[in-house]
Amino acid sequence: MPEQKRPRQPNPAPELSPGEAAHTGGQSLKSFRLGALPILDRIIRRLRLDEFLREYLPPEDARQKIATSTGLLLLLKNLLVSREPMYGVGQWASRHPAEWFALTPAQLPHWNDDRVGRCLDRLFDANVPSLTLAVATHAVAEFNVALDELHNDSTTITFHGDYREAAQEDLMRGQKTQAITWGHNKDHRPDLKQLLYVLTVTRDGGVPVHFRVESGNTTDDRTHRATWDLLCQLTGRRDFLYVADCKLATAENMAYLHQHGGRFLSILPRTRSEDGEFRALLYQDQVTWKPIHEKRDEKGVLLERYSVAETATLSAEGYRLIWCHSTRKAEVDASSRHQQVERALLALSELRLKLSSPRSRYRQLGKVKEAVAAILEARDLARWITVEVVEKREETYRQERRGRPNDQTRYVKEETVRIALTYRIDHVALAAEMCVDGVFPLVTNELLLTEEELLLAYKRQPVIEKRFSQLKTDFDVAPVYLQNVGRIQSLLCVYFLALLTEALLERELRAAMKRDGVKSVALYPEGRACHRPTARRVIDLFEEVQRHQLIVEGQTPVEFTTELSKLQRQILNLLGMATAYDR
């Protein structure tokens, strides 16, 4: 009889025992990692996240061994500290004191990736917009965050995979699921599907106060009205300054905010007619600039100067239009244009080389003109580079028959069509373009703030880019290794809570430094000064802190913590947590 194959046994789940232990001669040492958990836990408790989760999550199943809110907070702390994969969260938690996760050692073996998934399912079944609104409202009150100026933007969460079941918006257990599909990818991967992640932060510390997940094919201009309505609920007012990029500056969006008592500030798109009209004035040298703001380094060296056009103008809808000029942006624009011209000339040179080849596949004049147009239009250089494409016919003669030629040899005329390509740079037009370098228009319905105040408000827009950078680098939000779109949307909610926690930690530390007159802390490598410490630097600083338990037979166990450095003590004192690691 042929040998029967034994059924394959699944790999056993690793045993989860609390801490890391060492034994010798009747003594044992058990070590737990603390890291920055005491610091983060302080922020999370002040946010009352456990209370809000229990309030908004569906009723617990009596068979649940670990509360959903406990599981979600464990996942949140993992994202903040380590960013383990789903299947590794239990192992990660077992290396830390269980009390920091509101768990008992007996509950650790019940924690696995399936439980993480079920926690995300229950979060999806909750009213996530109401939950995040309640958390943000409490955070604003608890940490006294100013809401006079809010910045909005969006980014894309890119996915690897087909996600056929999430190709269209749908309902799952009564909740809306977004479509994971193609759209304008801000990670420069148009071949991959995506979701749109909309975020709003405060001027005061860049604190996230609102997020929303939209389908991947949603355009930015369609998100602003719903976002503004929800921010009105959060702030309890309508007169906050709403700052966003050029997708806000559509006639419909601006009219909606203006008619409902809102204040907005955006940058006018280049496609608007006002932009072309103002640039025509610049070409004619009919614009006078007045300096309003300078940016200098610590040594007083001028880095950038901002100016505005002296003549006030209005948009087509009648809103205030402020034409600004930046010396730094002018340098960047000139450098970018030079690089684009160089790349276009290189592409034209390569095309001309192909045309001269005897095996060239460009035999039709129309095809060559299309290739030239693609080169120029891709870089918007048709104004500065003139290209001429012409057909040339070359006549050649060959013997009618083989053999040595003589006076009786007959010849056959052959005509070959060649396409010649010539190009030249219009240096006059290129030089004239320098007068519009560094120019950008701001549009607003705000009449009381000065031009400088509005300029500085818009220049604070990159604070939201910092949060997107954290999302994609510190937290490694992509790639996402989940298939269920409901769980994905729930996970993105947990990422929002992680961003909120880090932002509040940064804000608390920087405010304490300003209060105590501390200009910098030595958080950079080699003890270099850090004037604006980030939460990630603080978390990394405490990464090696551990708690040890020494057990000797017949004696009371002794607990002690890694001795903290002077820098670590300084950070704790600034945060008002001097005894957080004492035990």
What does this structure look like?
The chain is an alpha+beta fold and 583 residues long. The protein has a domain at 145-262 and 445-481: Nucleotidyltransferase, domain 5, CATH 3.30.420. It has 17 helices and 18 strands. Strand 1 (20-24) and strand 2 form a beta hairpin. Helix 1 packs across helix 15 (485-516). It is globular and about 120 Å long. The protein starts with 19 loop residues before the first strand and ends in a 9-residue tail after the last helix.
Write down the CATH topology of the domain at 145-262 and 445-481: Nucleotidyltransferase, domain 5
**Helix residue percentage:** 25-40%
Q: What is the CATH class of the domain at 145-262 and 445-481?
A: Alpha Beta
Note the overall shape: globular
**Low-confidence runs:** 1-13
Counted by DSSP, the helix tally is 17
Would you identify the CATH architecture of the domain at 145-262 and 445-481? Answer: 2-Layer Sandwich
Global mean pLDDT: 91
Strand content: 15-25%
CA(first)-CA(last) distance: 67 Å
Class per helix and strand makeup? alpha+beta
Largest sheet: 10 strands, mixed
